[in-house]
Amino acid sequence: MESTKRDIGFDALRGIAIIGVVLIHTMSDSVRFGQHTVDGSVGFYYTIFLRQVINFSVPAFLFISGYFVAKGAQKHTDYINVTAKRLARVLLPYFIWSMAILLTSGILSGKIDAIMIFLKLLTGKASTPYYFVLLIAQFYILTPVLMYVNSRKNGFALIALINLMFLATFYIVRLFFSIGIPLYFIFTLPFYSWMIFFQYGLLLGANPTLEKRINSRPGTFASLAIFGLMLSFAEALLMLKEFGNVGFAMSTIKLSSCIYAIGIISFFLWLKTKITKWPKPLLLIGNYSFGIFLIHMLFLDNIVFMLSHFTGFRSLLPVFQMVVVLITIIICMGSIYVSRRILTEKISVKIFGL
Questions:
Q1: What is the block-wise mean pLDDT of the chain (354 residues), using blocks of 10 residues?
Q2: Are 263 and 200 in contact (CB under 8 A)?
Q3: What is the pTM of this model?
Q4: Where are the domains of the chain?
Q5: In the structure, how many helices (H) and strands (E) does the chain have?
């Protein structure tokens, strides 16, 4: 979501990734409105498998952020001011939209709880995807430490090992223990569950030579992505069969999904050097990605609810989900366009993130 010189290849990746994010939340709403159930049906397994395919979406955004933070660090040495600007760019829109959502919810329910609002602001719970803003803020603050680690011999390997250790802990806790603290606060929100993706972006953003070496081996990373995806399918089925854990089966925070995401991201770096003309709608979606991220849940619930009334259409799960995603993104992009026309692009982006 951050850029120095515009790279349309990264805009394309942003576009693909935000479509994946909207689709992930469409799946969650489909469960809530009865589009598929944990019954071993074709629709259920279709959703489980599709989720594995799009699990690269959040890692891709983390990678892109790390990549451009590293590029920017080569031009700016004033860490405090640069970090403050980065934080303001994501936290101000986050605060405005979170407050709007929480106050609206409080007014509609007839109860505004100031303490609850504060806690939800602090933990990214105003809207399902908002944890990502607090996650990226953690990485912005930690950037000097992470870049220093990358500069040391085997620094990236150390980060990968630490991430793997936390991942192993996540498996043990989620599968074998029941604790009183929601796993969201222990594994989803903290940076340590995701740091390999941001760190990978920092590594390649600061090392053009290494990036060229990555780009010279597309076959290796395509194979890694395929292997990771197949492993992800197998792991998801194992989680379902042996543990009955649907949430973990669909989660991005699992070893196979990490392997898959690294493979996809690395392969895409090569792919964007070969494709010079990306579809304009995809590039526009990528350019609007942060705005779409911020507001898509405002529309998604209602779109799913309304379309769920069409029983015949509802049974065509892949078509249903794609239509929901398409309508949601079109409405979001229309809203962003209108906001930029009325408020000017500078105010719309800076204040509202649109």
A1: 68 97 83 49 82 96 95 72 90 96 91 91 94 96 91 90 90 77 81 94 93 94 97 92 84 93 97 93 96 96 85 78 94 96 94 94
A2: no
A3: 0.92
A4: 1-35+280-354, 36-276
A5: 18, 0
